Amino acid sequence: MNQSGGSKRIKREKSMLLVIDLQQKLIPVMADSQLLMKMCERLLAAGRILEVPSACTEQYPKGLGGTAEPVCALISCKEIRPKMHFSSCRAEGLLDDLRSQGRPQVVVIGIEAHVCVQQTVLELLEADFQVFVCVDGVSSRRPLDRDVALQRMQQAGAVLTTTESVIFEWLEEAGTPAFKEISRLVREV
Q1: Is 84 exposed, middle or buried (0-12, 13-18, 19+ CB in 10 A)?
Q2: For the residues 122-150, what does the mean pLDDT come to?
Q3: N or C of the chain: less Cβ packing under 10 Å?
């Protein structure tokens, strides 16, 4: 599963989607929160259409609230894992679950980019996953924190991409029934 030896392209049969802390009380204070949610919802919907498995975490849900309802409606994972550590890899059973899927690629979206997302990405890289961070699917309260976190994750070996790039890499070809559904999805601005 070494990221340096992995495929340069994101393959739906080799990837999973990890949703980090898209919680009710956190989202409103994020920079560009409406765009963030639109991109995350679009990626989640595409993942559902294309049967890409997902995992989801919540940081201290007792204090920060649960996962936002639009996200809950779209996630395909069996459960949302609560956590107290900033890295989602420390949520009970998550890393084992990711490994058991046999999918070496993890596509990451969520908040906050410079805290939970960054620590998760660094730990995923240490665990030999190939990590793709959707730059339009992560945010922080301050844009500077987000920008520096993206640079650091990239320097550590994560690949920066966009939600639409991931969707079309998963899709691979036009003219299929899934393509028609996805086309409608991405045309919604």
Answers
A1: exposed
A2: 98
A3: C
Mean pLDDT of 25-33: 95
Report which of 101, 132, 99 is spatially closest to residue 117, judged by C-alpha positions: 132
Q: DSSP string of 98-122?
A: HHHTT--EEEEEEE-IIIIIHHHHH
What is the C-alpha to C-alpha distance for residues 97 and 144, in angstroms, rounded to an integer?
33
CA 138 to chain centre: 8
Query: Would the pLDDT of 77 be above 90?
Result: no
Look at the chain and count its residues. 189
**61, two tokens:** 């849900």
pLDDT exceeds 90 at position 34: yes
Q: What is the pTM of this model?
A: 0.94
The backbone torsions φ and ψ at residue 172, rounded to the nearest 5 degrees and listed phi first, read 70, -35
Q: Which comes out higher in pLDDT, residue 107 or 72? A: 107
Reduced to 3 states, what is the DSSP secondary structure of residue 69? helix
Nearest alpha-carbon partner for 138 in 118, 159, 166: 118
Averaged pLDDT of the chain: 92
Please state whether the peptide bond connecting residue 112 to the residue before it is cis, i.e. omega within 30 degrees of 0. Answer: yes
Round to whole Å and give the CA distance between 123 and 157: 11
